[in-house]
What does this fold into?
Amino acid sequence: MEQLEEYIRGLKKNRFQVEYFETGKEFVDYAIRNLPTKASIGFGGSMTLEQLHLYERLSEAGFNIYWHWRNSEIIDMKERALNADIYFSSANAVTKDGKIINMDGTGNRVANTFYHHEEVFIVCGINKLVETVDEGIARIEQIAAPKNAQRLGVNTPCVVTGVCTDCTSKDRICNVLTIIEKNTNSNINVILIGEELGY
It folds into this structure.
């Protein structure tokens, strides 16, 4: 817990709002109780959100959610998510000094994490915590990117090798790297959960 406090201090120093929950269930219950019921909610592609069953739980509670993982009209859902009041996503890594690192294929997910919404929630399991930016990028190359490429069934070397080779494949999913160093004009909330979640 002492080491976790260092991450929380780093994030708060960078003006992020931070909440910690022991379990994913505790966070989901908290979200249902505290999100404004009339707000529209957008989701970015995220195995963390998937594993939390957040879409299903919020939908059952009556929230209006736009997620391209749950609708065949992918482009329309991405547009609606872009214009939602609240946006949920995860991060590929969070550093001890409070930086949020993400890699994306098309950029829609990462753009939504720091622009346009009334409130943003970045939900992360403790497996996403790293010491430095370099370690965060290494985590993407060695864990997150290969696992996501395998999940998507794309034609990239990392599907076979299990490690990023900085490929030039047309199916490459690592095209946009973002490092949020300080909270922007958006109200960015970082939710840390004491479980391993996502890639």
User: Anything to note?
Assistant: The mean pLDDT is 95. The radius of gyration is 16 Å.
